[in-house]
């Protein structure tokens, strides 16, 4: 990968480098909600770039960046969104004076600390999957027989459940401790009250935006055409409520009271350099689930608990 240098000052150890450039929705005291791209401690206001003609040759819909969500932008397709991101990356390169020396630069570059980040997309549906054999096994040990933690179907098909899209919130929004029924092993009958076993799950969520018709199927070869990018996802869980309610139909109130996502959507293009072959699937999956190209990513995630 060629080394890229930018004229924007990037704090040491920042995640928002010239290689990343994630999309998000922001506003501040003087600006209405709009689409931005993060770099360092700044947000690139794409609506101002558009007004100044920096995207003129892309023939974008008028006002596409003055939106309260990324949905309309994502609906343009990955060919267009990739061109937009590449154009911004080019404008931010150290040897490109077009934005660096432009009189509009001060309006385009917004301080991130002065911005309020909003939910990046309007979410119509959300499905939560077991991400790995280790994930599925740990859940099995938590709620079932530890000696038979991994159910036999996991090695053959994606295992997931539909969550509650309406309770997904942007990172930083406070949540309420849920109430529900729980029954500990030493209890003769269930009780009702606030959860006593709140938990979190650090996950990676992907944002899909290309539409399909009812009854259509998407092959594994075409799947990435439908994935715009990734966000961090905190799947808040009330383990005592979940343990009592999840049999036989799966999670309900113990997993649906809140889920937090990061406000910045990292594109597939930004993560290409982290691709690698996944674990060998044994036994082999059925042909319709096989992937010809690497579809796993080497990404280190950490969670810190602050009292």
UniProtKB/TrEMBL annotation:
The active site is at residue 135. GO terms for molecular function: fumarylacetoacetase activity; metal ion binding. Keywords: Calcium, Hydrolase, Magnesium, Metal-binding, Phenylalanine catabolism, Tyrosine catabolism. Residues 20-120 form the Fumarylacetoacetase N-terminal domain. Substrate binds at residues 130, 144, 242, 246. SUPFAM superfamilies: FAH, Fumarylacetoacetate hydrolase, FAH, N-terminal domain. Its EC number is 3.7.1.2. Ca(2+) binds at residues 128, 201, 203, 235. Pathway: Amino-acid degradation; L-phenylalanine degradation; acetoacetate and fumarate from L-phenylalanine: step 6/6. GO terms for biological process: homogentisate catabolic process; L-phenylalanine catabolic process; L-tyrosine catabolic process. Mg(2+) binds at residues 235, 255, 259. Residues 127-274 form the Fumarylacetoacetase-like C-terminal domain. Its cofactor is Mg(2+); Ca(2+). NCBIfam families: fum_ac_acetase (TIGR01266). This is fumarylacetoacetase. The lineage of its organism: Bacteria, Pseudomonadati, Bacteroidota, Cytophagia, Cytophagales.
């Amino acid at each position: 990968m060629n080394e890229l240098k930018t004229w924007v000052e990037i704090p040491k150890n920042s995640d928002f480098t010239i290689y990343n450039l994630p999309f998000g929705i922001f506003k501040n005291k003087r600006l209405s909600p709009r689409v931005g791209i993060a770099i360092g401690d700044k947000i690139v206001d794409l609506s101002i770039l558009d007004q100044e003609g920096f995207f003129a040759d892309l023939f974008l819909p008028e006002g596409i960046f003055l939106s309260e969500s990324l949905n309309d932008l994502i609906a343009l397709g990955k060919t267009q969104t990739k061109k937009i991101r590449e154009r911004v990356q080019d404008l931010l390169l150290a040897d490109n004076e077009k934005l660096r020396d432009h009189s509009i630069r001060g309006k385009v570059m917004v301080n991130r600390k002065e911005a309020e980040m909003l939910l990046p997309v309007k979410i119509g549906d959300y499905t939560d999957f077991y991400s790995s054999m280790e994930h599925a096994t740990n859940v099995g040990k938590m709620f079932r027989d530890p000696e038979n933690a991994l159910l036999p179907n996991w090695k053959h098909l994606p295992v997931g459940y539909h969550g509650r899209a309406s309770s997904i919130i942007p990172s930083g929004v406070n949540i309420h401790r849920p109430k529900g029924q729980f029954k500990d092993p030493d209890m003769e009958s269930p009780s009702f009250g606030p959860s006593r076993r709140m938990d979190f799950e650090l996950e990676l969520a992907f944002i899909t935006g290309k539409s399909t018709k009812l009854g259509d199927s998407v092959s594994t070869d075409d799947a990435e055409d439908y994935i715009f990018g990734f966000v961090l996802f905190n799947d808040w869980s009330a383990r005592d409520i979940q343990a009592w309610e999840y049999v036989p139909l799966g999670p309900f109130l113990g997993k649906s009271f809140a889920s937090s996502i990061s406000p910045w959507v990292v594109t597939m293009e930004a993560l290409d350099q982290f691709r690698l072959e996944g674990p060998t699937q044994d036994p082999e999956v059925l042909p319709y689930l096989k992937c010809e190209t690497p579809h796993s990513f080497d990404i280190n995630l950490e969670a810190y608990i602050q009292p």
